[in-house]
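Notes to self after the Tuesday call (sharing in case useful).
The group wants a holo model before anyone commits to mutagenesis around the pocket. I volunteered. Ligand is pyridoxal-5'-phosphate. Logging inputs and output together so the record is complete.
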Amino acid sequence: MSPRADDVDESAIAIRVADVRARIADAAAISGRAAHDVRLIAVTKTHPAAVVRAGVSAGLRDFGENRVQELVDKRRIAPEASWHFIGRLQRNKVRFVADGKTLIHSVDRTALVDAIEARAARAGVVQPVLVQVNVGDDPAKGGCEVERLRELVAYAHEQSNIRVRGLMTVPPLPPSSRRASDDVRGHFATLRGLRDDIVGTYPTVRELSMGMTADFEVAIEEGATMVRLGTALFGTRESARAKVISTEDPR
Ligand SMILES: *Cc1c(COP(=O)(O)O)cnc(C)c1O
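Result:
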């Protein structure tokens, strides 16, 4: 973790949090919902641990990481917060993540379900998960194929120490020549349709984790119940890296 806690501009983060919350409320209103129907997950990956403290001070209650080691390190700083694992998860790292509280957004295969079930049973917890869906069929993105989703949800649902809470997606990047929102809106609508289909059979499958900095308002309009925001709250990750590098190497 970066020792330069003083480098984190707490007031800038507080201002961004307020701005993002206002944008969430506006987008929620468009879909006839209240701001508190949408959970704001602050994605702190690559940023120093001090942003977690600054985020807590600014009222953030949910934090997300996409690497196991960073999750473990930062979760320690704010154990009272709700933590989310949003990256690809290897079976041999499940034990660091599956504590029965951290929501795993990225369940995408039966082998991972097996590993989570084994760990959760041993720990005597019920592990909440989301099933990640590759709605755009993008080889660069994680998630199970749309055609396999039902089967995977059914499989996870059968486990006694796993609770499937919903679905998650990271849509493909649209071609740069086109406006992002049209393509992306279709992908978000697809995920919502899949959820609407499945929730009849599996009533716990309610959450829709979709929307990042570039597209979270569209995602909310399409029904997101969780948005995962890094850049909008903490600035670009390039600047975070540059800061750490310049601290380590003053040349
Ligand atoms: C990094 C990341 C985010 C946040 O991305 P921003 O564009 O910075 O908001 C959201 N979801 C996942 C899965 C991520 O890896």
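Two things stood out.
The longest helix spans residues 10-30.
The mean pLDDT is 91.
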